């Protein structure tokens, strides 16, 4: 069981890295802090779809569970990103300021806790 949990979490972390740091577009970054803007939604949809796929492939979950977990990831991811972007905007935290990096780290930690929760929830 430990092996399957490790593989599942590893797949979720790789998925997260790929979507957040490799294929995220500048438009997605720009619109994550504004509620209901398409590119911010699109970014979280990528995470939702990929999360559902990871659970389907690596956890042998039924499709209904995969869709539900994807929706949960969408909701968590969207609001975590929205909060980080708005905190940085409100306090004018830019990449030159240490606080920007504190909040980026907190954002990534919150996403990791989301994956831990989703794995716990399904198992």
What topology emerges from the helices and strands here?
Blueprint: H1 2-22, H2 26-31, H3 38-58, H4 63-90, H5 98-122
Helical run tally: 5
Main sheet characteristics: none
Low-confidence stretches: none
Query: Which range does the strand content fall in?
Result: under 5%
Shape: globular
Cα-atom radius of gyration = 15 Å
Structural class: mainly alpha
Distance between the termini: 10 Å
Total discrete domains: 1
- Mean of residue pLDDT? 96
Number of strands: 0
Describe the structure.
This protein has helices at 2-22, 26-31, 38-58, 63-90, 98-122. It is globular, with a radius of gyration of 15 Å. It is 82% helix and 0% strand. Helix 1 (2-22) packs antiparallel against helix 5, helix 3 packs antiparallel against helix 4 and helix 4 (63-90) packs antiparallel against helix 5 (98-122). The protein has one domain (2-122). By secondary structure, the protein is mainly alpha-helical. The relative contact order is 0.15.
Sum this structure up briefly.
This protein has helices at 2-22, 26-31, 38-58, 63-90, 98-122.
Notable characteristics:
123 residues, mainly alpha, 5 helices, globular
